[in-house]
Amino acid sequence: MRLIIHPDYTGVCRWVACYIAGRITRFAPTAAKPFVLGLPTGSTPLGIYHELISLYREGSLSFAHVITFNMDEYRGLKPDHPQSYNRFMWENFFSFIDIKRDNVNILNGMAADPARECAEYEERIQAAGGIELFLGGIGVDGHIAFNEPGSSLRSRTREKTLSLDTKRANARFFNQNPDAVPASALTVGVGTIMDAREVLLVVSGYNKARALQAVVEGGVSQMWTASCLQLHERALIVADEAATDELKVATVRYFKTIEARQY
Ligand code: GLP
Question: Do 88 and 41 form a contact (C-beta atoms < 8 A)?
Answer without folding.
Answer: yes
